[in-house]
Amino acid sequence: MIRQKVLQFPVVLTIHVFDKIRSIDMALGEFAQLLGTGEVLEEYTLPGDQLHELVLISEWTRPLHVVFIVDEQHAEERVITVYEPETEQWSQDFRRRLR
Prior knowledge:
Number of domains: 1
Oligomer: single chain
Radius of gyration: 13 Å
């Protein structure tokens, strides 16, 4: 079930995310403004009761997928990667994986 992304905790970016943002030619400020937007496409719980969310952000010039770990124990939301979805792997609206 797709739902709007709502940030519950402060966001922490991994070093990998800084590299990915640079590789898609996006400014860090632009990315920061988009973090509270988007739709949660997939979610599941990881070991240690951490919630994993795949979020579609479509408010930028190109669609982006952002992967969050919502860590209630540490009261933070870690962004672990961001990428432009591959058209061959996703539906036309980038909301469903093609199997």
